[in-house]
Amino acid sequence: MEATVRNLRKERIGKVVSNKMDKSCVITVVRKVKHEKYGKFMTKTTKLMVHDETNQVGIGDTIRVMETRPLSKNKRWRLVEILERAK
């Protein structure tokens, strides 16, 4: 019988925009998307709610997050590491 192989979880890198909640923060992930018709590159922003167990992130920090099971109504991501602290 084959061993079951789990799909790799998605990872994103984003900047913290809010850390007012307990054990949670909101990050923005910015990506460049090419317009289908005109070919111009546009910036698209996605907001993700992240689980931060130790309340260690601050506004402006750059962090890496990983997809996880639903933790609350809106939280589906968890903190992996802090890449860069805000100046």
From TrEMBL:
Keywords: Ribonucleoprotein, Ribosomal protein, RNA-binding, rRNA-binding. One of its GO terms (biological process) is translation. One of its GO terms (cellular component) is cytosolic small ribosomal subunit. CDD domains: Ribosomal_uS17 (cd00364). It comes from the Bacteria. It holds the Pfam family Ribosomal_S17. InterPro entries: NA-bd_OB-fold, Ribosomal_uS17, Ribosomal_uS17_bact/chlr, Ribosomal_uS17_CS. One of its GO terms (molecular function) is structural constituent of ribosome. Part of the 30S ribosomal subunit. NCBIfam families: PRK05610.1, uS17_bact. HAMAP family: Ribosomal_uS17_B. Belongs to the universal ribosomal protein uS17 family. One of the primary rRNA binding proteins, it binds specifically to the 5'-end of 16S ribosomal RNA. This is Small ribosomal subunit protein uS17. It comes from Dyadobacter fermentans (strain ATCC 700827 / DSM 18053 / CIP 107007 / KCTC 52180 / NS114). The gene is rpsQ.
